[in-house]
Amino acid sequence: VKTLHPAIHGGLLARRDTAEHMEAIAAHNIKPIDLVIVNLYPFQETIQKPGVTLEEAIENIDIGGPSMLRSAAKNYAAVTVVVDTADYDAVLTELQEHGATTFETRQRLAAKVFRHTAAYDALIAEYLTNITGETFPEKVTFTYNRKQVLRYGENPHQDAAFYTEPGTIENSISAAKQLHGKELSYNNIRDADAALKIASEFTEPVAVAVKHMNPCGVGVGENIEEA
To answer: Which of 76, 77, 140, 86 is nearest to 114 (CA)?
Structure first.
């Protein structure tokens, strides 16, 4: 155990605007920590490996990482905490240009941390619950990852985003890659999902046309072009 230590968490949690806090860490020779960057153990990637054992899964449950993240995020008034590599450039830019991050940035990153650790814990809970075979646990938490922001929702005046479950099934719309065309809307996603499900009913090459979830036509052939 290296990071579960008063020298770490004292430096993260000490409120800079509270004299009692600053005097306490000074008395124990604890230095304030202003920036935390953590990458958690890859629990999700581990349990998705074929043949993974319970011991391997448990070994990849991070303890120190989430603890540091939560301490830093709680004190976001003074501490910048980063859990997503997508935020590295923005944080570096603010540090280089202003010598510190803004309050708004720290608050946004803190919220992201709590979402991240909540999803991490939810996945662990789901994995262990499935192992125990418990059918109806007293609490159930679902977590999803945003895949993309959509052009609009069911109607053009509505905002929408497309979220997927962790461990997405390979042959599904959530795992599909858009090759060209404008940004998708909610209806595009629904239609594509319906078309894929229909096409999955066939073993031969098939083409499916769908409009607002209604199949308009299905063709089969020797190859995709003929279908």
So the answer is: 76
DSSP string, 75-104: TTTT-EEE--GGGHHHHHHHHHHHSS--HH
Residues in a beta bridge with 107 = none
Task: State the Cα–Cα distance between residues 31 and 14, nearest whole angstrom.
Answer: 9
pTM of the predicted structure, to 2 decimals? 0.85
User: For strand 206-211 and strand 161-164, is the pairing parallel, antiparallel, or unpaired?
Assistant: unpaired
For 71-118, the pLDDT digits (tens) are 999 999 999 999 999 999 999 999 999 999 999 999 999 999 999 999
Catalytic-role residue among 21, 28, 74, 147: 74
21 among known catalytic residues: no
**211 has catalytic annotation:** no
**pLDDT over threshold 70, residue 168:** no
Return the pLDDT at 198.
Answer: 94
Quick one: what percent of the chain has pLDDT higher than 90?
91
Token pair of 189, please?
Answer: 């996603």
Residues in Cβ contact with 219 at an 8 Å cutoff, skipping those fewer than 6 apart: 206, 207, 208, 227
Domains and CATH numbers, the chain: 6-132 (3.40.50.1380), 145-220 (3.40.140.20)
The one catalytic residue in 5, 49, 211, 212 is: 212
